[in-house]
From TrEMBL:
It comes from Paenibacillus baimaensis. Keywords: ATP-binding, Cell cycle, Cell division, Cell membrane, Membrane, Nucleotide-binding. It is found in: Cell membrane. Its main location: membrane. InterPro entries: AAA+_ATPase, ABC_transporter-like_ATP-bd, ABC_transporter-like_CS, ABC_transpr_LolD-like, Cell_div_FtsE, P-loop_NTPase. Belongs to the ABC transporter superfamily. This is Cell division ATP-binding protein FtsE.
Length: 228
């Protein structure tokens, strides 16, 4: 599903975010990416959906070599990757329905299919009653559920989640994690960067620890292992 081979990332200011990362993520896996702030976790995530490009090394996603990918193929690859952010990134003037639908309009899906699919994912995230609500009319947890619905509406093979519970209270965070687990159970690979020790230690999925730009641990049923 995803493979990095000797990946290095050096930014223009000379800072090295990643140093020789080699890792494979299999189809249907649930992977936590953990480590201290500034360790390289966000860069690791951005490389997968090609927001950043490596200085050296190879990255394969769904069989595509991202470094050799022609520009016209990038949107196609990104269609198969859903991204969830800590700050939701919903469009403020659009309703919950419209925010989710927008992800399908971009790929020019027919209106009939858009309506059916958006209602399906609203049902999945248990927010069908919020279809007409604006982001400002929803709680943080509800906004994150809409962001998740938007990320999965095009049936991606991979979800990249960067601190999806970072702005949420503990109870709401657990609700989001149960939803993420259900999405994973339905066949979507999930890669999630988090500082939430309790969630990682309770759910016991594969854990990839990044420290100083390098892989420090890769455990099948891992623990968080930090005191932040």
């Amino acid at each position: 599903m995803i493979e990095m081979q000797d990946v290095w990332k050096t930014y223009p200011d000379g800072s090295q975010a990643l140093k020789g990362i080699t890792v494979k993520v299999n189809r249907n896996e649930f992977l936590y990416v953990v480590g201290p702030s500034g360790a390289g976790k966000s860069t690791f995530m951005k490389l997968i959906y090609r927001e950043e490009r490596p200085t050296k090394g190879s990255i394969f996603v769904n069989g595509f070599n991202l470094e050799k990918l022609k520009q016209r193929k990038i949107p196609y690859v990104r269609r198969n990757i859903g991204v969830i952010f800590q700050d939701y990134r919903l469009l403020p003037k659009l309703t919950a329905f419209e925010n989710i639908a927008f992800a399908m309009e971009v790929i020019e899906a027919p209106k009939k299919i858009i309506k059916k699919r958006v209602l399906e994912v609203l049902e999945l995230v248990k927010l069908r009653d919020k279809a007409s609500s604006l982001p400002t009319q929803m709680s943080g947890g509800e906004q994150q559920r809409i962001a998740i619905a938007r990320a999965i509406v095009n049936n991606p093979t991979v979800i990249i989640a960067d601190e999806p519970t970072g702005n949420l209270d503990p109870d709401t965070s657990w609700g989001i994690m149960k939803l993420m687990e259900e999405i994973n159970f339905r066949g979507t690979t999930i890669i999630m960067a988090t500082h939430n020790k309790e969630i990682v230690n309770t759910m016991r999925k594969r854990v990839l620890a990044i420290e100083d730009g390098q892989i420090a641990r890769d455990q099948v049923r891992g623990e968080y292992g930090y005191e932040d």
